[in-house]
Amino acid sequence: MLEPFFKNYFNQSLTKYNSQVDTINNFGPMLSNLSDDEIRQRVQILKQKLLSNKNEADIICEVFAIVREATFRTLDIKHFDVQLIGGLVLNDGQIAEMKTGEGKTIVALLPTFLNALYGKGVHVVTVNDYLARRDAETVGRVHRFLGLTVGLIQEDMSPEERKQNYQCDVVYVTNNELGFDYLRDNMAFTQEEVVQRPLFYCVVDEVDSILIDEARTPLIISGPSEAPTQKYLQTSQLARVLQKNIHYIIDEKNQVVKLTDEGTLFCEQALKIADLYSPSDPWISYVLNSIKAKELFIRNTHYIVNVEEEVIIVDEFTGRTMAGRRWSDGLHQAIESKENLPIQDESQTLASITYQNLFLLYDKLSGMTGTAKTEELEFEKIYGLKVIPIPTHRDVKRKDFPDLVYKNQYLKWQAIANECIKMNEIDRPVLIGTTTIEKSELLAALLSEYNVPYRLLNARPENIESEAEIVSQAGCRGAITISTNMAGRGTDIALGGNLESLLKVKLKKFISDLVSVDFSTVLKSAQFDEFLVSFVPVFETFGLSKLNESSVREDLLEYLNEGIIPDRSDIMDFITAYNSFLKERAAILLEEKTLITKLGGLHVIGTERHESRRIDNQLRGRSGRQGDPGSSRFFLSLDDKLLRLFGGDQILNLLQNIGLEDDAPIQSPILTKSLESAQKKVEVYYFDSRKQLFEYDQALTMQRNGIYSERKRVLEKESLRDWIIEYGERSLYDITLAFSTSTNLTLDKFFALKTQELLGMPYQVKWESAKGDINVLLNNLKHQFQVSYTLKEAQLEAIEPGIMRELERSFLLQQIDFSWKEHLQKISALRDSIRWRSYGQRDPLTDYKKESYSTFVTMLNRIRHQVIYFIFRSKITIDFE
User: Fold this and answer.
1) What residues have CB less than 8 Å from 803, skipping those under 6 apart?
2) DSSP string, 494-529
3) Quick check: pTM over 0.85?
4) Can you state the percent helix, strand and coil of the chain, rounding each to 5?
5) CA 569, CA 566: separation in Å to the nearest integer?
6) CB within 8 A of 341, min separation 6: which ones?
7) For residues 487 and 615, is the Cβ–Cβ distance under 8 A?
8) CB atoms within 10 A of CB 871
9) Residue 658 in 3-state DSSP?
10) How far apart are CA 347 and CA 364, in angstroms?
């Protein structure tokens, strides 16, 4: 039965799952008495029922109960009732909002296993390679235990490895790899190059990060462009001398740069050109990008420069570097020029898709996160997904203190440092969230001056390597952790430390030293005792996986497979000694957690309000997991970006009027509400921009789906002869229709030349031969085309059997890809210019849809004509040497 507190917490949207949870629980005693093989046999029976179109509702409870039992046997974790509810919500194609530490990873096991039984493949999408690999290795054990195959897609995998992994029942993959694999599949030249299966069911982890934050940036596969790079050098030098508010105006809220009349004249004189906006030699985009690079894109905030002298984008939402990603439309080149780095060639879009339209391709989509309710409207409007908040297993005991607002940055950072010192004196763990690399290092330097120990996690490569270990140990006694962002870190912060993470790090380090040393000798050494002592702060009682002999053996075998240690039988002696030590230290480790709990748990400090409330909530949510105590407080200043843009001057005037001391902070519920109001304004603005991007991309999506479907049929079809015949007949119809509707009587000559060029005939067809009947002329042309095509086929096949089928496929794919690439360029230019139509009292979106469709139809006609033209002019050259 459901726990009493859970029943009291039930809201209307969850009540319908009440009876299902009871049924799942009722299966428990029966399943616990079955052997492993008997459970796997039941899985096969359930699978056959599903495949024979048995109603899913009749077997879902038993499937969930089996996964629950398998998870307990494999990971020693048993799903709570609230986690079962989360699984049911996900299976219904909705978003489950579950707080940090509530076990979203094992919740995803329930719907993914059920849907994997259909045999169509299920994707679990995460935000980075580390999380995908971790989930595939750990919770993937449950799927493997029940007889399913588990795949993993990583950045450095070959196409062959990707295809093999995509064929698995459950695939763990990042959103980036999923999107780029989809685009690459639709650029493939053979069916063997396609790696993905049709998109069936998907669970998106950190769904708000992927479907909301990432939705502003489309995925783009690009190729080299012939655009010049010299212009970036000239405009970068020009931007250095241009003056703000004289030559240009910055709209920081909307991230827009505008030249003044004086600025336009100055630039034209400096560049020695007549018109910045000339269509034949445009300069305006280069100038604006150089100013944006100077004013809006800051080093160590929006990007870093690595040792290879490359500009690497820093994700503002996750704090991670985005290697391989580049800003489009020349912005990246402008920043390279600003930093005096080698300017890479500008790229040209070959294929693109937004995450919004990518994930809408799935038959069923669901997601989970700790913070989705603030974006509920967008999820429902764009994705058709409802957000269902799931109650916590235990009541949240975290205290969220009111924000403290200081007059300037100096006072704010001083207050934060003092707060860290105060917490460090009582050994209470502290997590500090900063918005940029620069500010995280500023605080680190300040704490170093006070001799306060800390650990730093930001986008710099040297810190990323130890990310999981830093985050997992942020709850240790006296730990102070500075992080640029806590979204999608994927590792729980458990009070006292995360045993599994610490085990892997220390075990690997210890064992790596044993390659050339006798193992049995080491077991008796002081080095081994020191190694065991390092596990004093942590233990299995912190709600993590049970560390028994088998789990340690798995870790050791993993290292053996990596070639780190030799395969020796005395490893079992190590396992025995290790487990013995853990049992002896149980009481001490429990005291460690109890002490931190009495101190108040993890204290979270926010150094600035983010534009999105979700990011702030994610930071707060790191404290108070699973009923643990905790607290949070934000330290702000009047010159923080959000306050500066949304009312900082008014607050400063208020301070001066009431005569508040300079170093005294403001703590007011009214101020907190005004901040939240400012965040809502920013969220609405970004929602509107994402909605606009989605609406404009919808027109392109219909075209993209048509082109990609055409390509897919080309790859799958063995013979394209009938297809080419249809192309030719359609082309003849287009030509005939165009001339028949023309009132120009002098076009007869052009009609004859056009048909002769298309069909490659040695004679011309006269328009008068139709004698007024267009259908007669068209039928004659179609007949002549089929004869000509048959002759061309016989000519080529006589020299090289099978060559005609290869030419048909090759020309079709080449022309589709080339024309689509040109089409994307035209659509991009149209989208950039169409917004000016609003000044003429016209709807830009309506005009965009009409003109993009017209351009698309023209492109399809050109593809057909070009394919026929090239096939008729194909020749085989024989070299007799």
Assistant:
1) 796, 797, 876
2) -TT--HHHHHHHHHHHHHHTTTTS-HHHHHTSHHHH
3) no
4) 60, 10, 30
5) 10
6) 305, 309, 310, 311
7) yes
8) 22
9) helix
10) 34
Structure token digits, residue 510: 């210890």
Q: What fold, for 4-218+357-389? A: Rossmann fold (3.40.50)
Tell me the two tokens of residue 26: 């009722």
* Sequence letter at residue 485: N
Q: Which are the contacts of 811, defined by CB distance < 8 A and separation ≥ 6?
A: 866, 867, 870, 871
- Model pLDDT, residue 373: 84
Cα(691)–Cα(685) distance, rounded to whole angstroms? 10
Q: How far is CA 583 from the centre of its chain?
A: 42
Judge whether 509 and 559 are in contact, CB under 8 Å. Answer: no
Helix (H) or strand (E) holding 358: helix 355-359
CA dist list (Å): 242 to 207, 260, 267, 270, 286: 42, 11, 9, 11, 14
Q: Are strands 256-259 and 248-251 parallel, antiparallel or unpaired?
A: antiparallel
The amino acid sitting at 523 is L
Contact 14, 85 (CB under 8 A): yes
Residue 103, Ramachandran bin (φ over 0: left; ψ between -120 and 50: alpha; else beta) = left
Q: Do the beta carbons of residue 225 and residue 349 sit within 8 Å?
A: no
What are the per-10-residue average pLDDT scores of the chain (881 residues)? 43 74 92 92 91 82 94 89 94 90 89 95 90 87 94 92 96 94 92 93 91 81 69 89 90 80 90 81 86 88 84 73 75 89 77 89 93 86 91 84 86 93 92 87 91 84 66 84 68 68 56 50 51 40 37 51 49 57 55 84 90 83 84 88 69 62 72 77 81 84 91 88 87 75 59 67 58 72 83 84 88 92 86 75 87 92 88 70 51
**Domain 226-345: homologous superfamily in CATH:** SecA, preprotein cross-linking domain (3.90.1440.10)
Q: Which residues pair with 432 in a beta bridge?
A: 482, 605
- What is the spatial distance between Cα 299 and Cα 302, in angstroms, rounded to a whole number? 6
Q: For residues 676 and 670, what is the distance between their CA atoms, to the nearest angstrom?
A: 10
H or E stretch at 368: strand 364-369
Residues near 877 by beta carbon (within 8 Å), at least 6 away in sequence:
none
Q: Which two tokens stand for residue 610?
A: 């983010």
- In sequence order, the 6+-apart residues with CB closer than 8 A to the CB of 590 are 539, 541
What is the DSSP secondary structure assignment for residue 227, as one 8-state letter? -
- What is the CATH architecture of 397-495+601-667? 3-Layer(aba) Sandwich (3.40)
Q: How far apart are CA 866 and CA 862, in angstroms?
A: 6
Q: Is 797 helix (H, G, I), strand (E, B) or coil?
A: helix
In this structure, the number of other CB atoms found within 10 A of the CB of residue 40 comes to: 15
Nearest to 108 by CA among 128, 121, 127, 126: 126
Q: Do residues 162 and 84 touch, judged by C-beta distance below 8 A?
A: no
**DSSP single-letter state for residue 477:** T
The CA dihedral of 120, 193, 153, 351, to the nearest 10 degrees, is -100
User: Which pLDDT does position 741 carry in this prediction?
Assistant: 62
Residue 146 in tokens: 């029940």
Q: Is 128 left (phi over 0), alpha (psi -120 to 50) or beta?
A: beta
Neighbouring CB atoms inside 10 A of 120's CB total 14
Q: How far apart are CA 151 and CA 377, in angstroms?
A: 34
Strand partners, 125: 173, 204
Please state which CATH number belongs to domain 695-872: 1.10.3060.10
Whole-angstrom distance, CA of residue 59 vs CA of residue 146: 16
Contact by Cβ (8 Å): 304, 459: yes
Is residue 871 within 8 Å of residue 807, measured between CB atoms? yes
Contact 420, 433 (CB under 8 A): no
